[in-house]
Fold this sequence. Notes:
alpha/beta; disordered N terminus; 14 helices
Amino acid sequence: MKKIILSLALLAGLAVSCNTSSEKAEEKSGKKIVSLSGAVTETIAALGGEDQLVGVDVTSTFPESVKTHASDLGHIRSITLEPIVALQPDVVVAGAKEFNPELQAKLKEAGIEVKLVEQEYSAQGAKNLIHTVGELLGKADTKSLTDKIDADLAQVKPFEKAPKVLFIYARGAGTLMVAGDKTPFTEVVKLAGGENAVTGFEDFKPLTPEALVQGNPDVILLFDSGLASLGGIDGLLAVPGVAQTTAGKNKAIISLDGGLISNFGPRTGEAALALNKALAEKVK
């Protein structure tokens, strides 16, 4: 009889242990998330929630490990309902300005929570994003990430005269756009101690030789991928008008990782510092 009671006690203990382990595993895994924003994906990963990502958009390039376990759903403007539903996420997170209202309504009808985040291209905006994503993940301690932004920005060295920087978005010589006001590129240039070479418009407009001559940038900034699509610096200098600018004459061309300088997430200070150092090398 004692043996039977002991066996039952052991089985009960084992059951409790299994239940506890199951609960801990469930608690650790948390909500299954689809992130349709590179900045959100980067922030989720920085806060320790990378394993909760089941799907991401094409802009989610950092950290690179994300694409090894989360499905690439493509560009936010072309994503449809079915691939998202197939992943059975608990929540879909996206930028408020980019997300399709019709798709949002369909996701809600399917019982999937949709979280839209407002993103401001500034150091404070990056901190706000970190706090918002922290709340989503149930992680209240975001101070280490926000402190790092401040620490990196504190290392940015001011210029005696702010260099004029022109950001060119390039996808080969056939697609060349320049960044105006209220874009992440003009804002990261400001954080790095520079100023935008072209003003008077918001968002982007096609690059023209006239605009290049009028703006006459000291430095031209591109994505690494954008410069590569043009065949490197020589390919950029072959674009009409570029060689006639101060930047072109001095070959003052900078290329940086696209996600780094455009996401305005946890690496915002790092991006500004990297650009600040690169500018210092070009405007000696």
